[in-house]
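Might I ask for a little of your time on a matter of protein folding? Here, with my thanks, is the record as I have it:
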Amino acid sequence: MILHKNSHKVVGLIVGSILLFFSFVASVIYGYTDTSLALSIDAFRNFDGSNEHIIIQSVRLPRAIIAAVVGGSLAISGLWMQALTKNPLASPGVFGINAGASFFVVVAVSFFSVTSLQTYTWLAFAGAAVAAFAVYFIGSLGREGLTPMKLTLAGAAFAAMFSSMTQGLLVINETALDQVLFWLAGSVQGRSLSIVYTVLPYISVAWIASMFIGRKINLLAMGDDVATSLGVKTGLVKIITALIIILLAGGAVAIAGPIVFIGIVIPHVARYFVGSDHRWLAPYCGILGAILLLAADIGARYVIMPQEVPVGVMTAVIGTPFFIYIARRGFHGK
């Protein structure tokens, strides 16, 4: 790790927060419609109803907020997944949470003709929760209880099952494909803040819990027997961690669709800076995840301008080489 002293880690958080602020501002300013910092400030101080002011207030600002919330949530959920499963490739995508959310949305569109984005949000949240509970339940069966290997296998199995059923429904219903294709690609475009407000209470609880559970996770990482001897109620800690994952990953997928790789990449980047102490990793993941998704969303606006690439495609382009690197080298960020 680069930052050895706690004072250096605090400075790193401050620097990361500053970078997050500038990334947020850049997300509000840059895009197909030419705007500037002065114009953006004026849109809030002296709103005049012009096209630029409307875009800044109604499109760019909500988009930046959503990208920051989703990016941070996905990164922290990926951190806890990797900690719980001891699998460096664990993430909402790998463990079937994205696939469960997508399946619920496609079922609703195919059989009940649902078209409301607000309804998509609740369905995706429900699907993510069902998938996560199913994976956790199957992974806990047997004499040994919850083990990293069983949890990983259960996650891979459910991810494959939900993905296969989703693809099957889309093949036989082209109308459903047209309606949900952009959502399935993962995007922060066209989302309203009302969607964020729907799931923000749940995500906020998970954020707060993440800032306090790090010490328990540190002890759990030493092994269940050692953690138990030190007074940790390992079963309770695992259940709380699983609930945090469901709230963060489910909420993020409900808002923006199945955006991949942030939950894999960011925890490893955070470990590179601060090591394996989860008390520091959680806030670093939140900040770095938000920065990454904001940067990816800005880039998505320029790749094929005037059209836009879904930000899920951009994160896949960024994350795929890193995923291959981790898989080949067994890199744990230590």
About this structure: The mean pLDDT is 87. The CA atoms of residues 90 and 233 lie 23 Å apart.
